[in-house]
């Protein structure tokens, strides 16, 4: 993504950008949403749902975290208070555990995002980095279709570029930030304003040069999770050996395209991350309700259907992002916090009945030996009486937090668990997180 084309600072509420249109086209039709409060009784009808069975022994992917990006050069840095809101885990915090930063092409700019990266690290977050362009001396222009000034990395500069990435990694390490991973290129297949890479060029760099990079290597970060960009990496054993994380963006990606069978077949020992998205658009306020529920469903599908291990938003602080410009958590941010605050790095997604009722989405995660986190999204217009059964569980209670039209991740107290089961009312148009122990 680039600010200049997609996100003009003064006009983000104008007509949607091409990316916004893609994102809208890629989503499934918006379902009518509703949610009720946990345990609430009242005149509104309550629909009974099938039991959501959760099996802690059926383990899926290990979660690395949820987070967002800071890009000081384009929108300014987070303030000290905003950093704590983003990466803190207490009440009123987002609970982010991943920060993504850019790799500036000029070394003189490498300290721009350092303050936020340091604070995120102090609060326990993982930091990754993505470049938009190599240093200018390494780039050549070429004709690509109708674009006469397209940019690409010169083939004789592949080694120098790997060293550039290594040097950035070393700079951060020497300044108190250990990068978890560094990308080869942000969106190599959507690069009208930055540097293009073909799949063959990406494979060549990975085969011949990426092995010298001193941290985990992320590739290819296709803007739309296009498998024709990542398939060649998975199908080339030498390139794959030098990749640690298959990274993808989800702009306009249809839910039907979330699963990745080839990764399941050939990605053993590798990680699968969603490294950038905003959803469903960048034109509406992040507090628009019930549209903000779309974010919670999107994360659910990214975890359950795509089996991503990380989910990273675009700008952390933006009118359409998880944090408003005034530093307060938005409704979209509350939806993210239902996952980020409670599903911590190292937790493992476990099997759960994903769709126990129409418009209800359930995912579950295990932390340590006994903690089970359940996130339930009710996009329907009626409250749902939802029974949860935790297989072979010794949990005695489940604490819960709720977001609906009037509340943001509000504590709801504890519900008793008997023989591994409990029942709760999911308010219409709501997100509820349960923590059973």
Automatic annotation (TrEMBL):
Domain Glycosyl hydrolase family 30 beta sandwich: 348-434
Gene Ontology terms: biological process: sphingolipid metabolic process; xylan catabolic process
Domain of life the protein comes from: Bacteria
GO cellular component, one term: membrane
InterPro entries documented for this protein: GH (IPR017853), GH30_C (IPR033452), Glyco_hydro_30 (IPR001139), Glyco_hydro_b (IPR013780), TAT_signal (IPR006311)
Keywords: Carbohydrate metabolism, Glycosidase, Hydrolase, Polysaccharide degradation, Signal, Xylan degradation
The UniProt record lists the keyword Phosphoprotein: no
GO-annotated molecular function: glucosylceramidase activity
Family per similarity comment: Belongs to the glycosyl hydrolase 30 family.
Name recorded for this polypeptide: Glucuronoxylanase
Species whose genome carries this gene: Streptomyces resistomycificus
